[in-house]
Amino acid sequence: MSDFAPRVFSGVQPTGNLHLGNYLGAIRKFVALQESQDCIYCVVDLHSITAQLVHEDLKSQIRSITAAFLAAGIDPKRHIVFNQSRVSGHAELAWIFNCVARIGWMNRMTQFKEKAGKDRENASLGLLAYPSLMAADILLYRATHVPVGDDQKQHLELTRDIAIKFNNDFSERIAEAGLGTEIAVGEETVNGYFPITEPLIGGEATRVMSLKDGAKKMSKSDPSDLSRINLTDDAEQIARKIKKAKTDPDALPSEPKGLEGRPEADNLVGIFAALAEKTKADVLSEFGGRQFSEFKPVLADLAVEKLSPINGEMRRLIDDPGHIDAVLKDGGERAGAIAEKTMRDVKDIVGFLR
Ligand code: TYM
Description:
- The chain contains 13 helices and seven strands.
- It is mainly alpha-helical.
- It has two domains: 8-203 and 320-350, 3-Layer(aba) Sandwich (Rossmann fold), CATH 3.40.50; 225-317, Tyrosyl-Transfer RNA Synthetase (Orthogonal Bundle).
- The strands form three sheets. The chain has a three-stranded parallel beta sheet. A two-stranded parallel sheet has the order 4-7.
- β2 (39-43), α2 and β3 form a beta-alpha-beta unit.
- α6 packs across α7.
- The chain is globular.
- The two termini are 33 Å apart.
- 42% of the residues are buried.
- The chain binds ligand 1.
- The site of ligand 1 has 25 residues, from β1, α1 and α6.
- Ligand 1 is lined by residues 9-13, 21-22, 25-26, 44, 47, 134, 137-138, 146, 148-149, 151-152, 155, 206-208, 217-218.
């Protein structure tokens, strides 16, 4: 048993439109967790300059992600909602973690390889160090649980590696300063400053795929808008995109096993299940044997029913930037107070003079 107080942290980048994958894989889980946990949700603007430095509308993107958080039901009074660049501890701790993490660890990151593409030498140093900033986001608040989609799993493993190495390398100093907490690592119990964070990746939509290609992840950066359902799409756009979604000619199977080798069918059934809060098996027991021409309109109605209230509220909030900015300022102040304490401890552990 770990003695760390449970705390949830997660982040979303303010780049491009939020889509159904972000909603089902992450934001909807943020909302559910706030009922039982102490939560911090962050718009990670420092991350957004790693792949592209100059953004025309970064401020409105930050507000739009915040609006999505609030519209989905996150309560910024009971929990903390803020944008990362307000709290300088993220960048400070990331620097220390850059000295903890090894270049080999960073080079192995799938997301770095994908984003850097063939011209790795020309990628920003920030893109390579991205996971170290992500570890800093989480560990600055000594968060114990991180809800994310499946694509972030490797980054969370690296966060655990950074925490383990920091705890080991500084174990004596941590103990001397009386800053250690009991942590269970497998069978063993160690004394460390940072928790070994647990990823929360679960449910039927941990990896929502493109509507145009069942082998590709639904993504903000896909050039085809038909590949994704944006949280800002209206009912007509949602219905049109589902109607045009790629499928195969067969009817739906009556059990999940029948979805093997049918990535597009699997994806649509997964989306249905996640939206309806059911399992794929439940959905197939209802729709097995039916054609996509029958299934798609029911899926479109369900998606509209679940997404239009969020869409409407997002639009209302985006028209009130003063309110959004006040939420972020208040959240930033509360996050900053927690971060300050961590940075004081970390500076003492590393041995800086304060
Ligand atoms: P980002 O902004 O790309 O995505 C935000 C969240 O949405 C999830 N997600 C998906 N889930 C299911 N299916 C998909 N197609 C899909 N696409 C995206 C992501 O897994 C994520 O949970 N590195 C992170 C941001 C970050 C962060 C953090 C997250 C920075 N610091 C600390 C957690 C904790 C990212 O780029 O997410």
